[in-house]
Amino acid sequence: MMELVVIYVYYSDEIIEDVRSRNDIVDVIGSYVNLKRKGNSYSACCPFHHEKTPSFHVSREKQMYHCFGCGVGGNVFTFMMEHENMTFPEAVEMLAERAGIQLPEKSMSGEEKRLADERTRIKEMNKLAAGYFHFLLKSDHGKNALSYLQNRGLSDDTITKFGLGYSDKYSDDLYKYLKSKGYSDDEMAKAGLIRIDERHGPSDRFWNRVMYPIVDTNNRVIGFGGRVMGDGTPKYINSQDTPVFDKSRNLYGLNLARKSKRKGIIFCEGYMDVISMHQAGFDNAVASLGTALTVGQVNLIKRFTDRVYLAYDSDEAGTKAALRALSIMREFELPARVISLKPYKDPDELIQTMGTEEFEKRINEAKSGVMFEIEILEHNYNQNDPQDRTEFQKEAAKCLSRITDPLERDNYIEAVADNYSIDKKTLKETVTAYGLSAESRIDTSVFREQTRRGSPEEEKEKQHLKSERVMITWLINDNSLIPAVREYLEPSDFEDTVYGDVVKSIYEQFDSNGRVEPAVIINHYQSKEEHEKVSSIMQQDFGVDVDAAEKPQAITDLVRRVKRKSVQRSIENAGSDLELIKKLMSQKKAIEKIQIRI
After folding, report:
1. Cβ contacts of 332 within 8 Å, gap of 6 or more
2. How many domains does the chain have?
């Protein structure tokens, strides 16, 4: 058997900067998120957390992004790492391919090699586990599981196409198999395939279950779903998040659905729905992975289609899931239509009972998301009661007011007015009023400093660190201040070591290029926490909008505050060195004479 050879790569600063500079951050992020221009920057609802007011900002000038809501931020590499669950080298490689850059092959750094090794080993384990589960399904051990799938109407070809399998009834079966292949307990635990209990030792996460391998868009097995055989609980379990699997950013069946010639993508709730629909010819079906639809999944699907259908269960839980999904898709301007399954519970039941022609008909008759929401609203109110009918019409108007396109909004107003016998003029006036009311409630809190009150000493400390942060913001936004400020402030004057490193990079860039490129600075940091911290400084504009006449004094006050605190720290650390203390006290007095001239 041929040994797998993995070539590890490390890229020089020059290569990394070439890749970054040839991938405009607005173009890259704009391919995932619907960015809207606002002045010199772009904004959108954050792709990393659910929100209604856009707080995600992208700066073309700085080539950086930052969310003022959840705090994520960085440059184009950070975005790819966060959004695609990649390592730094993987992000460089993907963006290099996008820009048509040929990368050299060299050695990786120790930590990057370790992470790449770990991800490779997990993918190998998942592939082996999937093959082993499929083998068991076709053996005597899996005959009950195979009968279950066949009784659900699945053909042998479909079972093979989706790689379905069976995890044996012995709770250490997969563990023993992978152990025989040379994998350690720690590796299997990180892959989410086993659990380790201090008293009872290792055991399989999945046992006595029908197994559904979860495959990414590159056709790699990244996780599993398992349905229990018999009456055990829970009925379904999924892989935990691992270095290669994030359930909030993947979709079951997308590896196949993305190749479909059918228009759009159909969202279902479960694995069996997806499999049954593919077998029936609806090979554009996908499902979320044991959770409600997430922002990450909507961003993922936008890469492959601009048309979405929801085929969620027709019960109350399915209706709530559909409404939530519509809300998220509306924020990302991804139109969705809802397929009616009634009186059947799910797509599988409808297709098994009525056939493919009926399901095709239901797709063609699918309601737009807006009309579906209003139809649900109608059922919540007694249309024969004047007060209830008024409340329904108000809620319908609120729903319509969220449509931003004027032509689309007018068309829906006309349709709703006709369907529910509402005066069109009155409805339009009400919709307009609600729209204006919503626009007047601009939530600026996400752009304010989010601090929790502590003791007076803690608040004083926070204010000092804020001074350091604002000082850096000034330098980033107005490079002409650097010569005057560096005359008095050195990187070591900044108490926060990350801030001090940033200032050092600012000075070095200014000396080399006569200007500062924030996106280059962030390449020096490895951790997600540091990326977010640095990006938050570079994307902030607080404190930098004073009048030109007040600017010199504002900068002077900041320099004095940072320098004063720096000297005070030195005095406290001087111990009994009287000569040094005397020198520092002299410096402290001189601080009050500092005057920045611009």
Report:
1. 33, 34, 45, 295, 298, 299, 302
2. 5
DSSP string, 220-263: -EEEEEEEESSS-SSSEEEPPPBTTB-GGG--BTHHHHTT-SSS
Residues in Cβ contact with 240 at an 8 Å cutoff, skipping those fewer than 6 apart? 192, 205
In the block, tokens 């995600």 appear at: 56
CATH number reported for the structural domain that contains residue 70 in this entry: 3.90.580.10
Helix (H, G, I), strand (E, B) or coil at 7: coil
Hunting for tokens 């599993």 — which residue is that?
Answer: 224
Pick the last residue of a domain from 316, 346, 365: 365
- The answer to whether the beta carbons of residues 77 and 63 sit under 8 Å apart is no
Closest by CA position to 438, among listed 397, 408, 378 = 397
Give a yes or no: residue 570 inside a domain.
Answer: yes
Is beta strand 265-268 parallel, antiparallel or unpaired with respect to 308-310?
parallel
> Domain limits at 307?
265-365
Digit-by-digit pLDDT tens for the chain (598 residues) are 333 333 344 577 778 888 888 888 998 998 888 888 887 789 888 888 777 788 888 988 888 888 888 878 888 888 888 887 777 788 888 898 888 888 876 556 677 778 878 888 999 999 999 999 999 999 999 999 999 999 999 999 999 999 999 999 998 999 999 999 999 999 999 999 999 887 888 999 999 999 999 998 878 899 999 999 988 788 999 999 998 998 888 999 999 998 888 989 999 988 999 999 999 999 999 998 877 888 888 878 887 888 899 999 888 888 888 988 988 888 777 889 999 999 999 898 899 899 999 999 999 999 998 888 888 888 888 888 889 888 888 888 888 888 877 888 889 889 888 888 888 888 888 888 877 654 444 333 333 333 333 444 444 445 667 888 888 888 888 888 999 999 999 999 988 888 888 899 999 989 888 888 887 887 776 566 677 777 777 765 544 455 677 788 888 888 899 988 888 888 888 777 778 878 888 888 888 888 888 7
Q: Is residue 181 part of a domain?
A: yes
Residue 233 sits in the same domain as residue 143? yes
Residue 254 placed within a domain: no
- Same domain membership, residue 586 and residue 464: yes
- Quote the pTM value: 0.63
C-alpha 97/C-alpha 75 separation (Å) is 18
How many residues in total does the chain contain? 598
Gyration radius of the chain over CA positions: 29
Tell me, yes or no, whether 454 lies in a domain.
Answer: no
